Amino acid sequence: MEHSRSASARKAVQATADVSAGGAQSLDRAATLLILVGRAGPSGARLADLVAETDLTKPTVHRMLNALVRAGLLDQDAETRRYHLGPEIYVLGTLASVRFGLHPVSLRALVRLSEATGDTAFLSVARDVYAICLHREEGAYPIRVHALQAGDRHPLGVGAGSLALLAALPDAEVEEVLTANADILDERYPSYAGAVLGALVRETRAQGYALNPGMLLPGSWGIGVAIRGQDGRPIGALSIAAIDSRMGEERQRELMHLLRREAAWIEARMLQRDHGPARANGKRT
């Protein structure tokens, strides 16, 4: 009798473990789908592509996508049937930005840049081998460029802010990024393919700022600088975009000084946030 009860108890524990493992697996799959949809960018993700990328069955992927849509974490376009990040992701991202700090700390700098130049200022960050635009601050100049919107994602090095981020990485990491993105550069960004992006990295390091002379969108030029953390690694990038007639060499120098000043201001604010005012001023606490 005692043996029978022990066997039953073991079976119950195993059943509970199996359920827990199944639940964890479902969470892992849902998280993977969220990441894949996010990486698809503004164009959205097709069901067929998500099935292929996850190696899951179509019914399983479809069921999980529907659950994520119901939760507001994903959205499905009624016409294209493609999946996009949903409104709750935006809310969660806004809440997370308070913790991670770069976005809210940078807002005043972005406003100053757009007001001083009349052009559009951007904040970008690196995620894996891509750069993501976190914020776009419009200037007052009536002719605006629309090469980059908040949430847009491009391979690292494509665009001024993205190039500033890539050039600020160590050589070994730059090579890893170039290798990882080689296929997508060939397919979707041919003006950056081959040895071009490596040459742009060297040029950016030599001149101290990144320049995009209409390579992403004809007529739209950009200039960018990296924002560095206490360890010297890039934590973000500031950039300004304008039509080509407003990006002559003299104005490039003016914009570069403005960008560097605001990047230094952000770096000081981030250091102060992390270590307190005494350390930010070079004093020990």
UniProtKB/TrEMBL annotation:
Keyword list, A-Z: DNA-binding, Transcription, Transcription regulation
Pfam families referenced in this protein's UniProt entry, alphabetically: HTH_IclR, IclR_C
Nucleotide-binding listed as a keyword: no
Domain HTH iclR-type positions: 24-87
InterPro entries, per database record: GAF-like_dom_sf (IPR029016), HTH_MetabolicPath_Reg (IPR050707), Tscrpt_reg_IclR_C (IPR014757), Tscrpt_reg_IclR_N (IPR005471), WH-like_DNA-bd_sf (IPR036388), WH_DNA-bd_sf (IPR036390)
Superkingdom per UniProt: Bacteria
Record bears the keyword NADP: no
Classification via SUPFAM superfamilies: GAF domain-like, Winged helix' DNA-binding domain
Chain ranges of the IclR-ED domain: 88-272
Name of the protein in its database record: IclR family transcriptional regulator
Organism classification: Bacteria, Pseudomonadati, Pseudomonadota, Alphaproteobacteria, Hyphomicrobiales
